[in-house]
Amino acid sequence: MKHADALLHVRGTSLFVDDMRLPGNLLHGAVVTSPVAHGRIVGVDASPALSMPGVEMVITAGDIPGENQVGNIFMDEPLFAMDEVTFIGEPLALVLAESQDTARAAAGSVKLHIEELEAVFDPRDSFRRGMLIAPARTFSLGNPDRAWKDCRHIVEGRADSGGQEHVYLETQASFALPLEGGCVRICSSTQGPTFVQKVAARVLGLPMHRIEVDVVRLGGAFGGKEDQATPWAVMAALGTHLTGRPVKLVLDRRCDMAWTGKRHPYSSDFRLGLDADGGMIAWDVTYYQNGGAASDLSTAILERTLLHCTNAYYIPNVSATGICCRTNLPPNTAFRGFGAPQAMFVMECAIHMAAAELGVSPSVIQERNLLDKGDLFPCGMNYEGSEVRRSWSRAKELFGPQHEEDHGSDGPAHLVRGMSFMPVCFGISFTNTSLNQASSLVHVYTDGSVGVSTGAVEMGQGVNTKIAQVAAMTLGIDLSLVKVESTNTTRAANSSPTAASTGADMNGNATRIACRDILGRLLSFARVQLQADREKDVTIYCGEVLQDGRMTGMNWKELVERAYLERVSLSAQAHYATPGLHFDRTTEKGRPFAYHVAGTAVTRITLDRLRGIFSVDSVGMVHDAGESLNPVVDRGQIEGGLVQGIGWMTMEELKYSLPEGRLLTDSLATYKIPDIHSAPRKVDIEFLEPRGDNAGVYNSKAVGEPPFMYGIGTYFAVLDAIGEFRPGFVPCYGSPMSNETLLLLLEDG
Amino acid sequence: MISFILNDSDYTTSLPPGASTLDLLRGEALLTGTREGCREGDCGACTVLLGIPVDTGTEYMALNSCILPVAELQGRHLVTIEGITPEQGLSAVQEAFVDEGASQCGFCTPGMVMSITGYLLSTQSPDLEAAIDSLGGNICRCTGYVSVRSAAGEIVGRTGPSPAVDPASARHLEFLVEKNVIPGYFLGIRDRLRSMRGPGTGDGHGTGIPVAGGTDLFAAGGPGLRDSTMEFLLNDSSLGGIETADGWVRLGAAVTVSRLISSGVFRGMGDLQGSLRLVSSTQVRNRATIGGNIVNASPIGDLAIILLALRAYIETGRGPGGSRRLALRDLYLGYKELDLRKGEIISAVSFPAHEPSRGYSFEKVSMRRHLDIASVNSAAAILVSEGTIREADISAGGVAPVPLYLSDTSAMLAGMPVTADTVQSAAESAMGEASPIDDVRGSARYKRVLLGRLVKSHFLKLFPGILDPAALL
Fold first, then answer.
1. How far apart are the CA of B2 and the nearest CA of chain A, in angstroms?
2. Which of A222, A443, B309, B445 has the fewest CB atoms within 10 Å, i.e. is most exposed?
3. A303 classed as catalytic
4. Would the CB atoms of B103 and A7 count as touching at under 8 Å?
C-alpha cells in the first residue's frame, strides 16, 4: 500500500501552489521587510516603487480595512509594522505588480527610514531585562526540595540547543482569487487552513464565510507552515480584496529563510540527583526559550517542553520551569517535536553528566530509570503503556552492544567508534485540549466512488493515504474507489491545524464515524432489499454485499445505485473529539494526552579524531506504531524524522551577524541539511509488537513527530566516542555538534 | 531566438540568452514538474537533462535548470520530467521510486528521477554507489534518503549493464528504451538535432561577460544578469581539450569537472581522482569548469587548491598583450583580485603529469561532506626518497584571501625526514602562514586548527607505515 500521491509525484504532475495556472490578470506580490532587528519607523516612502512601470499598488498598514493583527495565541503580531519593527524580515508593505521580477525590484526600491534601537537575541539576556512573552510556568512532582537530601550524586550544568530552519522544499506560497460579492478564495501552502481563513477575515474585516481557503498539498512543512504560512496568505487575500484582481505571493528561498521563524533555540540549567544505584530521584530544570519577537506558538511549544521534561524516565521529584523570552529574532515557531526535543536533549545531557560522575555508561542510568506502567508524569498523567521498556529491551537485543567493536578502535588510532541509546516517549494530542477535534465529510456518488473531505492537510506525511484506507476499510470497498479531496474550509469548517502528529488519528476517526453512518444506512437498505430478517448478518466485504458471510449477488455499486433511487442519503458529516482529555493550567495537572508513543534508537558513529569529523554508521530503531495502518508510510516518517533530528543535532547551524542579528546562513549554500551521503549508511526499523488498545484510528498510533528525537542519539554517540580516549569527559553541552564544535572540543579538551 | 528540442517538441524562445532555463520551463513552457527549490544549484529540485550532439551520438547530462542559461539550449535536447514520463504507466525509474515509497511530499521527486535517469544515460555499467552519488545534488527533507537509496538499488539491478560501448551511442539509447528508462522518441532526437545549429559563443568580440559553466555567476544572480551580453566559453572547442604530452597535462579552461573525472588524468595520483567527487554535485560538476574555478578566485576553490599543489601554470587566451603563461600561484594578487588584464581570459591550465615517486593528497572539511564549500581544504604533492622529503608542495584554501600556496611550509619540508616531528613542524608552519577570518564556514581559530590537522592528514595518508597516527593526535 503506497502513498496515494506517489504516481503523481514521480511524474511531476502533482500540483503545488506555484504550479497552478492562474488567470491572466494576475498580480504578483513582493514584501518589503525590515532590514533591522529593532527600530522605530520614521517613514516608509513607496514612491520609487509606485513610479516603476508595472507596479499596481503598494499596501501598508493604513490600507488594512479590518484589524492589523495576525497573532494566534496572543494578539501581538501585526501583519504590517506600523510604529516599530522588532525583527529583521518583519513585513512593512506589500508591493503588487504585473510580474514577479517587477514586484521584487519595486519592493527593493521602497525607501525605509528606521531609527535603530537596541536589539536582544539571547534568551537569558531577554529574561534579565524582563522581556517575557508570558509568565514563567512550573510543573512539579513530589517534593524536590526534600529529595535533594536523599541524593547520593548530584550533577549540575547547562545545556543549549540551537534553532533549526525547516527547509520545506516548497517555500511559503499562496494566491488569492476574487469571487463574486467581495468574497475571496485563498489557495495556500498552509497546515492550518482555518487559521488562514480566520486571520484573513480579521484583517479584511469580513465574516469568515466570505473567505474560502483551499489546500491541495504542501511541499513539506514540518511545523513551519502551521502558523507562519498565514501572513503571506493573508497578504495575498488583502491584495485581492483591495485590487479586485488575483494575487500570488511566493517567497524565494533566501527571503523564506531570513524572514520566517525556526525551531526555538533553548538555553537550560539543570540539576539531577541520583541515589547510590543510579536511580534518578530529583530533577530541577529551567528552560529559557528563545521565542523571537512575537508569541506565535511559543507558549504552547514551551508547554510541551514541560510535559516532556523527563522524556522516557520516571523521576519522583521534579521541578521544571519554562520561561518564554521575547527577543528580536523572527518569531520562532512549531517544528516537528514542538518543544519536546529541546526538553529531551537537556534530560540526556544530565544523564550523560551523571554517568561520567558515576563512572558508568549512560545506558546504565537510562535503563535503570525507564518508565513503567503506572509511573506518574509531572503533569499528573500516568504512563499507561509498556512500550518504553519493551522497545528498550528489544532494541538492546537487536542493536545493542554485543561485540567489542562497538566502542573504541581497532583500526587506525584516529578513528574511534561510539554508540548511544536514545529512548523516546512522546505524548499524542494537542496540548491545547480544544484543538483535539476534527471533522469529515463523506460523499458516496451514485457510481459507488467516494469523496472524503477532512481538515487534514497532506504535506507528504501520507495522511490522505491513511484517511482513504480508513474509508475503504470501514465501507468494505476497494481503495481505488476512494478519493481524498483538497482541504477546504467550506467542506471542513473550524478545523485544527494538521499538527501534533494527530492528523491521521483525528481525521481518520472522524472519517470512520462518517463512513459508518453511511454504511449503517446502506446496510439497513440492503436488509430490506434482501428481505433479511434481524438475525441475519449483512455486511459489505471487498465490494460485495454478504449475508451471513455468503455472496448475495449484489455488489457495492448496485447497492449504492438502488439506495439513491430509494432516496437514501449517501453523504455524512461526522465530528470526532479525542476522548478523556483535560488539563488545568492553574494546577498544571491533568491528562493532556490520548496516549504515548515510545521507541528506542541505537546509534553508532565513527569519529575521526584527527580531522574532527564523524559519520553516522548505523541507527537501529524499535518503534511503537501500534497496529500500523500503513507500514510504508510509517517507515518513511521514521526514517525522515530520524535524519531531520540528526541534522538538528549535527550540521544544521544558524549563524547570525552580531550585533545586527542578521541571519548569515540564509541559503542552502550556507545552511546545510543532510544529503544522501551524510544520512546514516544503515537504518533498521522494527515495529514493536502492539499490545492493547489506544485512541489511534483502528488501533494504529501517530507517527509524525516521535522519530525526530531518535536523532538526539547521534550527539551522545559522538560524546561516547570521545569518552573512549578521554574517560569521564564532560563537555559544555551544546548542539549542534558541528564539525567546528567537535574539532575545538578535541583540541581544547 | 534560441531553438532546441524540448522533450518531444521543437521549441523556440525569444528569452534573452542569459535567462534561466527554469524560468523558461515554468513561466513560458508551463512545464511545472521542474521545481524551484533554491535557485542556486544547491537542491536539485529543478534538475533537467541536456542532450548534446557529439560525434558518436548524443551525450546526456543532468543539470540544474535554475543556473543554466537558455543560450546553452540552442540545437540541443532539453528533457524535463514530462519528457521521460511514458504516455501510459511509469518509466523504470519512476516505478522504482513508487515501489520503494521514495517520495513523500513529492516536491523534490522529479529532480531525483531526472538525476538517476541522467546517470543511466551516462553509463553502460550502472552500479549502486555511483547511482547514489548521482543523487548527491538532490536535497530531500522528507524521506531521510533510506527509501531513495533502495530505489536507486532497484533501478541499478533492474537496468543492468548495457551492451553499448559508448553511452552516447544509439545502441545505448535503444537499450534504455528497451528497459523503459526513456521513451522511444529519444531515438529520433539525434537526427532532428542535425538540422539545427549548435550554440554559439555569443558575440565573438569578447565584449560580453565571459561565462564558462556559470555555476557561480548564475547562482549569485542579480538584477540585470539575464539581459547582459555574454560570451559562452563552454561552447568554444578551442578551450575544451585535454592533452598529455612530454610529461605535462594540459587542460582547456572550459573542461568541466565531470570531464576531468572521466578523463582520468588524476588517476594514480593518490586520492585526487576520488576527491573530485567532493566538488559540489553531479549537476554542478557537469557545468563547472577548471578555468571558472580558477578565475572565480574563491579562496576555497577545490580545483584551484589541487592545481596549486601540482605547480600548475595557466595560459591566457587573449588580451591586449597576447597570450601569457604564468604560474597559478602568481595569478592571485588579493581577494578576488587576479593578475589578468581587461578582456584577458584563462585558456588553459597545465601541470606536470603523474610521477610515480610523488605522493598526492587532497583534504577537505566542510560543514557537510558533499555538496558543500570547504571550511578548509588543502592539497599536497610530496616527493620522498630514502625516507627524506625531496620536494613538497602544499596548498590551502579558506585560510587566506586567496587560494594559498604554502610556500614557507613547502620549502621548509625539503630535506626533512618523514617523522612525526617533521609533520608537527609542517602543521605549525602552515598554521603560521594562514590568515583566516571568521565567516559562515567557521571561525578563524577553527580554520587555523583545522589546517594543521589537514596537513597532518596528508602525511598520515601518504606515509601510513612510517607515521604513527597516535603520535599526531
1. 22
2. B445
3. no
4. no
Which one of A16, A413, A683 has the shortest CB-CB distance to B470?
Answer: A413
Residue A136 amino acid letter:
A
Chain B residues lying within 8 Å of A461, measured CB to CB: 104
Last residue of some domain: A533, A555, A577? A577
- For residue A411, what pLDDT is reported? 77
Longest dimension (CA), chain A: 85
One domain for residues A504 and A355: no
Residue B223 distance to chain A (closest CA, Å): 8
Distance CA(B107)–CA(B153), nearest Å, equals: 22
Whole domain around residue A534: which residue ranges?
437-577
pLDDT at A692 over 90: no
What pLDDT sits at residue A22? Answer: 92
Q: A170 contacts in B (CB within 8 Å)? A: 35, 37, 105, 107
The beta strand positions in A469-558, using DSSP E, are 482-484, 487-488, 538-541, 544-547, 550-555
Q: Are B137 and B44 in contact (CB under 8 A)?
A: yes
* Structure confidence at residue B145 (pLDDT): 98
Confidence label for A402 from pLDDT (cuts 50, 70 and 90): confident
Contacts of A459 in chain B (CB under 8 A): 105
Element (H, E) at B154: helix B146-159
Q: Can you tell me the distance from the alpha carbon of B217 to that of B231, in angstroms, rounded to the nearest whole number? A: 13
Q: What mean pLDDT is predicted for residues A205-217?
A: 98
Average pLDDT value for residue range A403-431: 85
CATH number for the domain harbouring residue A641:
3.30.365.10
Among B42, B82, B456, select the one facing A12 at the smallest CB separation: B82
Task: Determine which one of A77, A170, A639, A705 is catalytic.
Answer: A705
Average pLDDT, chain A: 96
Question: Could you give all domains of chain B from N- to C-terminal order, each with its CATH number?
Answer: 2-194 (3.10.20.30), 237-472 (3.30.465.10)
Helix (H) / strand (E) containing A454: strand A450-454
- Measured at the CA of B240, the angle between CA B237 and CA B243, to 5 degrees, comes to 125
CB contact under 8 A, B457 and A169: no
Residues A466 and A392 in one domain: no
How many other CB atoms are there within 10 angstroms of residue A205's CB atom? Answer: 12
Contact A309, A320 (CB under 8 A): yes
Domain count, chain A: 3
Chain segment A652-668, per-residue pLDDT in tens: 999 999 999 999 999 99
pLDDT confidence of residue B116: 98
- CB within 8 Å: B101 and A3: yes
Q: Which residues of B touch A655 (CB under 8 A)?
A: 440
Residue A473, SS3 per DSSP: helix
Q: Looking at A528, A545, A577, which one is the last position of a domain? A: A577
pLDDT for A650 beyond 60: yes
Contact B43 A668 (CB under 8 A): yes
* A11-32 tens-digit pLDDT: 999 999 999 999 999 999 999 9
**Residue keyed to cell 529519444:** B186
Q: Are residues A589 and A736 in the same domain?
A: yes
Q: How far is CA B283 from the centre of its chain?
A: 8
CB contact under 8 A, A7 and B90: yes
pLDDT at B42 (0 to 100): 97
**Statement: the pTM of the whole predicted model exceeds 0.90:** yes
Q: What angle do CA A272, A277, A278 make, to 5 degrees?
A: 30
Cβ-Cβ pairs closer than 8 A, A with B, add up to 243
Strands B47-54 and B77-79: antiparallel
CB A290 within 8 A of CB A313: no
Residue A271 and residue A360 in one domain: yes
The answer to the question of residue A153 being in a domain is no
Of A166, A188, A738, which Cα lies nearest the Cα of B37?
A166
With H, G, I as helix, E, B as strand and everything else as coil, classify residue A419.
strand
